[in-house]
Specification:
The protein is mostly helical. The chain has one domain: Arp2/3 complex 21 kDa subunit ARPC3 (Orthogonal Bundle), CATH 1.10.1760. Helix 5 crosses helix 7. The longest helix has about 40 residues. The two termini are about 25 Å apart.
Length: about 170
């Protein structure tokens, strides 16, 4: 439970430091990392909790609900994919979850008019999705980097815990 809380706070606090135009979304990386070690219920805590921390720092809005829907779908996809601790599984999770999240954000932007005044027509929806593609491209790279960062940090904590247990058993 401590690892879940730390991962939730870390991803929310880091996400709260960046404006969305930079494509920084550590919450997806945290979810992918957490999928290696945590139960599905805890994945929802990490994802939704991290997003809540982020939005409390950045400011709550109608778009908070859109982000919650996106993160909820990402966690559902990660659970359905049964992400395992190997590169193939990680890349599959990343290539599925990142587009889901950004498609939800683009549709939510179109529906709420938060980041752009797209007409609420099918053409406006397409324009919203197309306008989000540069953001999606940069965030895909950042998602991968944050996944690696969280995985490294979590592995270090796990390794340290195992070393301490072995020392206690030996001594």
């Amino acid at each position: 439970m401590i690892a879940t809380a730390l991962l939730t706070l870390a991803c929310g606090l880091i996400a709260g430091q960046f404006h969305h135009t930079f494509g920084v979304a550590p919450i997806l990386g945290a979810i992918l990392c957490a999928a290696f070690f945590l139960r599905p219920r805890e994945l929802f805590v990490v994802g939704l909790g991290g997003m809540l921390v982020r939005d409390l720092l950045m400011g709550l809005s109608l778009f908070t609900l859109v982000r919650f829907a996106g993160i909820g779908l990402v966690v559902a996809a990660v659970v359905a994919l049964k992400i395992r601790p190997n590169l193939r599984s990680l890349l599959t999770g990343l290539l599925v979850s990142s587009p889901i999240f950004h498609l939800v954000l683009a549709v939510g932007n179109w529906a709420t008019g938060t980041c752009g005044g797209f007409a609420r027509t099918p053409v406006g929806l397409v324009q919203s999705v197309v306008s989000s593609l540069p953001y999606f491209q940069s965030s895909l790279v950042v998602d991968f980097l944050f996944t690696a960062l969280f995985l490294t940090a979590y592995s270090a904590v796990l390794s340290r815990t195992l070393v301490l247990r072995r020392q206690e058993q030996a001594g």
